[in-house]
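dude i think i finally got it to work??
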Amino acid sequence: MRPLTTLTLLLVFLAGPALADGSRLTGLPSALLSGDAAEGTQHEIPNMPAPTITAGAATIVLGQTKLGDLYDAFGGTLQHAGDGTASANWLCYAAGSGSTQQLIWFVSDGHAGGPEQEVTLVAANYAPPKDGCDAAPSSLTELKMQSPGLGASASDLQAAFGQVAARDNMVAYLNQSAAMQGGATTFQSLNYLLSGDTIIGFAVSQVTVP
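look at this
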């Protein structure tokens, strides 16, 4: 089965039992790294939506926005995990209330994010607060993007991408044939977790590799 993204391959080491600092990604990012998402349906599409996500007053452009800028905007705890081969830095927040409680992650891959820790993955899923995720400030209540987000339906995915056919409640839309630019290739992935007809989690990633 085709890998979801280079990011998934690069960070799969982080799911291992021995990490230098004991930190762990959780939620949907953890599902991606553990390989659980690889059991879902994968559709390759020719044109991905713009890799731009709105988080409160912040506009995140994958591969450009720096993790430190989001820390300055929202506070929280900058976290790190690595095993000597691969590494990641991230922020995690618990936002919303009641039926819209959710966890939000901003992740910078240690390789693709570079020394400036550019954000390479953004994810959210409905879940109660948990250890390792700071309470979100009032300015961060949800993520918005051009594609369907939390609470949208499978019908919305059908309208946006033309096909769904989720397996094990997971579906991914991939573009791994992006145009070469300066000898580098951009890989994009948009992953969804569904419960019945409702989107309860998503993760969007973009990495550029030589």
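The longest strand covers residues 198-209.
im so relieved honestly
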